[in-house]
Amino acid sequence: PTDTPTATPSPTMTATSNIPPPGPPPAAIPAEVAYIDDGNLYFMVLGSAGGELYEVLDERQLTNGNNTVAAAISPDGAYVAVLNVFFQQYELAVVSSDGSSFSSLVAPADLYTGDFDPPEEGVTRTIQQIAWAPDGETILFNTVGNFQFGAVPQSDLWTVTLDGELTELFAPFEAGAFAISAKGELLIATDSELFRTDLTRSFNETLLSFVPVVTYSEYVYQPQPVWTADGEMAYLVLPSSDPLADNPFVDLWQIPAGGAAELAGTILNSSFTLADHYLLSATGALAYVQQPQDDPDINLLYFGPADALLEYDSGTQLQLFGWSPAGERLLYAESGDGSWADADLNFRIADQDGNVDAYFTGLGAFRAGYWLTESQFLLVASEDGQAATIYIANLEGAIASLKLIQLEPGLVVDVHLPG
Predict the structure, then answer these.
(1) What single-letter DSSP state applies at residue 342?
(2) pLDDT of 107-116, one tens digit each?
(3) 129, 177, 220, 233: which one has the fewest Cβ atoms less than 10 Å from its Cβ?
């Protein structure tokens, strides 16, 4: 007899997955810092390791030719634009922040050198101001013409993509000091006007016209526009045309994104023309240093809204370093008479309520300061003028040394705050 077939039970299907269970969220990266030491570029990641101060979580060397002189981190932190110098000729390159790639974007031969004023044979053109476009794919820069008698800003503007596509956006003497917003709006200030455009130069819109500022030198003053971090507002500080004339003044203009320039306030009986004498915060507060004619050894610090400035502090050779991210506090220092080992020099922080606190006396001469959060910041100080120490510190007075770096060819530090 034939066996009666029996049904084979169907196997029970069990759901399986190759996706691992979710782990803890990745640790946030509070800050990324690029710096140059002895002509080489380094990149370090700072974050919390359980202590009251951030520590170095990761660090890598990105260039090794001993010829890097400038650096700027891209908006997403993925790349660093670098300037390398070869026998007084500048190369613009880009290196990935993880060190996996390096590309030369602009060589000295790529920059046109025939249309200089005055014309001169053998003139070289070097890159001056560099900035990233918000897409992280394009770098903007302008140049300086190097002559036998000195360097002359060419007031041009170029763009180059990560693929090496080079475009001369403005020919020499058509542009000036520039600032690009997080939304891609481009402001350019010449010595006599401020105008708006974009990276395609699809339009040019004049926002302000003004009389050129007398500098009593060969230096041509072009005011530097400053954008807020969100790209919603820009500011421009514009001195009166002759800072040494009677009753000098300074106007503070605000320019909404896509809007007309508006006068935000005027500072009477004041004069300053150099960018390192003033700082604008992300909220439009102005800090500036003034040197009284009757006491040239003393600097006075003022800050606040442009129409309500208050005198906050005084000291010998005050240096402004930066506003905190929210614009609540100002980091600055007294550099004294230039003595590297002056034990009385200190970093200072002023808040908008008028409180001034002195920090960390005796570190040497101060070179720079950078905010990381509303309470933590980097300080750079040198005891001998040859080397400098990068410190991390906070408002509570804690401080730790991060790195000792050489100051030749110059101090270069750039800070990127993700998010």
Answers:
(1) -
(2) 877 876 555 5
(3) 220
